[in-house]
Write a structure and sequence with these properties.
about 500 residues; mainly alpha; elongated
């Protein structure tokens, strides 16, 4: 058994020894911290402090076990404490760890004069407390009322859908976000959450593996357990854009809750995230050599049968499997933009054939910049795309690729094609991580820029927003300009074996 004075003394020695040990390392070694490592250390100790405060708030005293064991060993004390003494020591060490993390964070920002905030660590506070009058009890805070977060979030999501400010995919992603937040931070009225909850959610997001929702090894596991299981793994984490998407959905919900008087202030904002993906996590582009290998594989050079596309034969079937990669590399269009095309979207402007990419229901586009006209590349015309269009029109179908049916939770036309294309690349020996269908878009953009096409025209063709003042006043380009630019895409691949007479 330890009395309160013994526990206080142990906690204070823990605090001072942790800081002294770190400073001795600085003074007696030649260790230097370059800027990336210094920034990483600042972020680490900031995150550590948040995690420890969260553990205190949730009364997870076991979070201090490792520190308590080390402290008792250093003090030469018996580990066999009674339950109450151990709990008090664990709580005290967690309180001290908050100040340790803050002090070390400031050291990596050049400040070495941190004064502990917790009165438990300040000896002078003992005498002051003895002389001070009994403090008045703190005012009772109102207990948050209103619907639970899960109910409020679903109501908000349905409203966004009803007003048309979110498409089906955005609403589906938001539902995943809201469910993940409730899983991590609990389900209570919106006004009952604090900034620490938002920090905890953000910190866990950046630790989640990018494939946490798909990998078989994580199936059925809670997000916290997944992050813990992946802590020692080097696999890619969620991209910054994905983390930002989760936080933005919650920030929008909180803004509405504040406006409605359901919360005092938004708890999502001013989060600093890495500016982009690591180079090894970025998508590659299809180079000329790889495109030549792809278009020389069975789908384009002759397959065995409809069901056995990856086995060589004499059959070239000009359906969506044939056309989608060709259209992508010669247009830079996104996969779903191609998959959801209607026959009426393949039309003429004067004597120029083009893809009319629009958001007329039931079509769904990524954003407002995706609405555009993309002239059809001369190579696609030479390969017989218009003949295919006419063939489908005679069949009575409405869409350009009627075989494609919506699939997956977000009901995308490209859902099943994506799975097939992955299998096909594996079967023909062309599978490589980060080289997928979206990589055709990178290829088209690169070919355009290498051909000297102005970046602002490249953005107009690919549906990207152009930054800067020029873009504000350059809204439209003549179809002739766009046609001349798109025809400059030259992957330098011989496709004469696919030419139609």
């Amino acid at each position: 058994m330890l009395d309160d004075n013994q526990i206080t003394a142990l906690v204070r020695r823990f605090y001072s020894s942790e800081l002294e040990e770190e400073n001795q390392l600085r003074l007696t070694s030649s260790v230097r911290f370059d800027e990336p490592n210094r920034e990483a250390a600042v972020a680490y100790y900031e995150r550590l402090g948040s995690e420890v405060r969260a553990a205190l708030a949730r009364n997870e005293l076991g979070r201090a076990d490792e520190w308590v064991h080390a402290l008792l060993d250093r003090e030469g004390r018996d580990h066999d404490l009674d339950h109450l003494s151990r709990a008090k020591l664990q709580q005290g060490v967690l309180r001290a760890s908050c100040d340790v993390a803050e002090a070390l964070r400031k050291r990596f920002e050049g400040e070495f004069h941190h004064q502990p905030v917790d009165p438990l660590l300040v000896p002078e506070a003992d005498a002051m407390a003895a002389a001070a009058p009994e403090p008045a009890p703190p005012p009772e805070l109102p207990i948050p009322t209103g619907p639970l977060f899960s109910e409020r979030a679903e109501s908000y999501r349905q409203k966004r859908l009803r007003l048309g400010t979110w498409d089906a995919q955005t609403a589906f992603q938001a539902r995943k976000t809201f469910a993940l937040f409730a899983e991590i931070c609990g389900d209570r009225p919106v006004g009952g959450y604090v900034r620490a909850d938002a920090v905890r959610f953000k910190d866990l997001l950046v630790e989640l593996p990018a494939n946490y929702g798909k990998a078989a090894r994580y199936r059925g596991m809670k997000a916290v357990d997944i992050a813990r299981a992946a802590a020692s793994e080097s696999e890619p984490r969620l991209a910054s854009r994905t983390v930002q998407r989760h936080l933005s959905a919650l920030a929008c919900l909180w803004d509405e809750a504040v406006e409605a008087g359901e919360a005092q202030a938004t708890i999502f904002g001013n989060f600093k995230l890495p500016s982009g993906k690591r180079a090894k996590d970025q998508r590659d582009m299809w180079e000329t050599e790889q495109l030549a290998q792809l278009f020389d594989s069975p789908v384009w050079h002759g397959c065995f049968s409809d069901a056995r596309r990856s086995k060589a034969g004499d059959l070239v079937i000009r359906d969506e499997k044939f056309w989608l990669p060709l259209i992508a590399v010669f247009s830079g269009m996104r996969q779903e933009e191609i998959c959801q095309l209607y026959l009426e979207d393949v039309r003429q402007d004067g004597d120029i054939w083009l893809f009319d990419i629009n958001d007329r229901p039931p079509r769904q586009l990524k954003n407002r910049n995706a609405v555009r006209k993309v002239p059809i590349h001369r190579q696609l015309l030479g390969l017989g795309l218009l003949e295919y269009v006419e063939e489908i029109r005679r069949s009575g179908a409405e869409r350009l690729f009627p075989q494609l049916q919506p699939g997956g939770a977000d009901r995308r036309f490209g859902h099943n094609f994506t799975k097939w294309f992955t299998r096909y690349r594996r079967d023909v020996g062309l599978y490589r991580k980060h080289l997928d269908f979206h990589s055709f878009r990178h290829s088209a953009t690169t070919f355009l820029l290498h051909a000297g096409v102005e970046p602002i025209i490249v953005d107009a063709l690919t549906g990207h927003e152009t930054a800067g003042e020029t873009a504000r006043y350059t809204k439209y380009f003549a179809t002739e300009q766009l046609k001349e630019a798109i025809d400059r895409i030259d992957p330098r691949v011989d496709l004469r074996h696919l030419q139609r007479a």
